[in-house]
Design brief:
- With 143 residues, this protein is mainly α.
- Helix content is 55%, strand content 7%.
Length: 143
């Protein structure tokens, strides 16, 4: 069983998958930092100096000045500002993945099938440039 596991791990696609997960996790951190530290502060400024990370609803009915104060008091909160940030993170990551997949699919365009014609004698498919049918050896007229 150990030998089978070793062969499974040694396959290239498993290693590629592991590398993809590691790079994806690092990319996720970059996007999270981009959203939290670069994108949301100007958006909050344009919306009247709003810090989305500090937007929350206290479920115990008491008012707290900051999310940190609510957490320090042990109050249950709905952190909708952080949820908005997470949604923006997801949209950016999803769009980046879309662009990558689109480029990979563009590179994987299938090769065009060779042009063929039917042999008038045996009806087998023959390349357009062929002068004889490989099946019945009949001489073909060029188009």
């Amino acid at each position: 069983m150990f030998k089978e596991f070793k062969e499974f791990i040694a396959k290239g696609n498993v290693i590629d998958l592991a590398i993809g997960i590691i790079i994806g996790a690092a990319f996720g951190k970059i996007v999270t930092s981009f959203v939290s530290d670069i994108l949301m502060p100007p958006i909050g400024m344009l919306l009247g100096k709003v810090d989305f990370a500090e937007k929350f609803i206290s479920l115990n009915g008491q008012a707290y000045a900051t999310l940190a104060a609510a957490k320090a008091a042990g109050a249950p909160t709905i952190n909708y500002g952080m949820f908005i940030n997470t949604i923006i993170d997801f949209v950016i990551v999803a769009f980046a993945i879309f662009l990558v997949v689109k480029q990979v699919n563009k590179m994987r365009t299938p090769a065009e099938a060779p042009a063929v014609k039917d042999c008038p004698y045996c009806l087998s498919s023959v390349p357009d440039k062929a002068t004889r049918c490989p099946q019945c050896t009949s001489e073909l007229k060029s188009a």
